[in-house]
């Protein structure tokens, strides 16, 4: 369980390993996307099993009309991690990413950063891995068909994670923008899926045992209506992740057994913001540890109201740090001042004049 947070033997404590976007892509491809997702899912599941050890707080959010910027911190008492992340749905119209992120892992005992990494790609991977972990406990047995409604940046990661962990190999895709569906289908070609491009959300859910919604609009929306969803399915609601943004009709929630990451955050940001503040939900960590029931029968409708929580990012940072101990996909940043005398920071500055 102990993470190696110094993946190399740097020349001094001032050096912090940095994983750029280019190196993150190299690392993922070196490991293999399916393997990376499966291993990352195991780290997430391990950390959910020790959920009670972590500091927990709803993410710190700064909202605007255009989107949101958030900080997501946590610590297990030995290692501290945080992620900076934004969500700006209108960015795509300007050729920009909806979500970008970076993260830091630090040593609690010294306070020194031990890893700095991009997390735009890593967030997409950890979101998909978390969805698949939840589905291990909540999806119908032997489910092999998933509808993905919303075929943007998250869709391929979701598909591959569900294949890696659950064996899902049939996809029914729909997006209001047909070019997004075409993009998703093309990207997943050769990954072992049978893919159907659908003309509506209603068509996409037909015959699917797992329904994933991953849309980006920052508004109350109804991607799935009550009459579209039959009994026995598992709904993986990914898109709703801030106040005023939902994807499911309220009646679906009232019919479902609802599972969440951290209720104080999900009640603000998730689908359940539509419900009474005391509406009963189960916490995923309690299902994983056997303290609460997950799926109990074939006719049960389960909903994972996923908003993303800091412990999942901690798991992803921890996984990457461990991978770097054997794979040199990082740069060394001279990031921390390291004077010979810790009390003489000014002297270190002045001596630098003579070095120019």
From TrEMBL:
Coiled coil: none annotated. InterPro entries: NAD(P)-bd_dom_sf (IPR036291), ODC_Mu_crystall (IPR003462), ODC_N (IPR023401). Pfam families: OCD_Mu_crystall. Keywords: NAD. Belongs to the ornithine cyclodeaminase/mu-crystallin family. NCBIfam families: PRK07589.1 (NF005762). This is Ornithine cyclodeaminase. It comes from Flavimaribacter sediminis.
């Amino acid at each position: 369980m102990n993470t190696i947070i110094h993946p190399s033997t740097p020349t001094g404590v001032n050096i912090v390993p940095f994983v750029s976007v280019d190196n993150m892509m190299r690392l993922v491809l070196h490991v293999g996307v399916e393997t990376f997702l499966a291993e990352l899912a195991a780290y997430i599941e391990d950390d959910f099993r020790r959920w009670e050890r972590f500091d927990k707080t709803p993410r710190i959010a700064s909202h605007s009309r255009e989107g949101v910027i958030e900080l997501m911190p946590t610590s297990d008492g030995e290692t501290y991690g945080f992620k900076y992340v934004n969500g700006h749905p209108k960015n795509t119209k300007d050729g920009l990413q909806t979500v970008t992120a970076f993260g830091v892992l630090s040593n609690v005992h010294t306070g020194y950063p031990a890893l700095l990494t991009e997390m735009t790609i890593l967030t997409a991977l950890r979101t998909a891995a978390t969805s698949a972990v939840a589905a291990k406990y909540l999806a119908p047995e032997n489910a092999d068909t998933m509808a993905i409604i919303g075929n943007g940046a998250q869709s391929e990661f979701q598909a591959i994670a569900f294949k890696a962990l659950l064996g899902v190999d049939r996809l029914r895709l729909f997006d209001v923008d047909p070019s997004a569906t075409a993009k998703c289908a093309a990207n997943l070609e050769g990954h072992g899926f049978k893919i159907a491009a659908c003309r509506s959300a209603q068509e996409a859910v037909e015959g699917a045992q797992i329904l994933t919604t991953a849309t980006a609009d920052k508004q109350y929306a109804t991607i799935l209506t009550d009459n579209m969803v039959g009994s026995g399915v598992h709904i993986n609601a990914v898109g709703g992740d801030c106040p005023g943004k939902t994807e499911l009709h309220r009646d679906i929630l009232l019919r479902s057994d609802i599972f969440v990451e951290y209720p104080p955050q999900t009640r603000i940001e998730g689908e359940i913001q539509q419900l009474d503040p005391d509406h009963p939900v189960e916490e995923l960590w309690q299902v994983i540890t056997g303290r609460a029931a997950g799926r109990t029968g074939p006719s049960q409708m389960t909903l994972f109201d996923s908003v993303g929580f800091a412990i999942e990012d901690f798991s992803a940072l921890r996984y990457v740090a461990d991978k770097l101990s054997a794979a040199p996909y990082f740069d060394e940043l001279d990031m921390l001042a390291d004077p010979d005398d810790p009390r003489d920071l000014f002297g270190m500055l002045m001596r630098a004049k003579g070095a120019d």
